[in-house]
Design brief:
By secondary structure, the chain is mainly α. The chain is 84% helix and 0% strand. Helix 2 runs antiparallel to helix 5. The longest helix is centred in the N-terminal third of the chain and has 30 residues. The two termini are 14 Å apart.
Amino acid sequence: MIITWIEDDHRAGGALLQDVGNAAEPGTEERRNRLEAFARLWTAHGDMMAAAVHPRLGSVQAWPDPVAAALDLQQEVETLAVDLAEREAQGDGHWQPAFQRLLDVFARQCRVEETDLVSALKALPPEQVAEATRTAEQLRR
């Protein structure tokens, strides 16, 4: 179930960002609302990953360390999303370069999580995956 939640978050985040990119001009309020929703989703996603997934993968021996990479990318995505929402609230018309950066970092984070972290989760003993799922479920309530 934890793996499904990770994948669902990726799809939902991608859909919100697609809505932001496709907002009719000027679209400031619509983009801001979608960016704020994305920021909330991605903060909750990061909290779930930090509490339920990363501790169980701390012993993954890989270089570069996918857990560290995911943490760095998570922080950057959250920061960019909040910054863009604030800029939209102020009516900043030059949002496209920062939005493209957000799309790029989000895609990289999803790639790391899907290729490295989900694979590592699948390799864990079932009881560890079940524990990660229980932890995530408590956070998602």
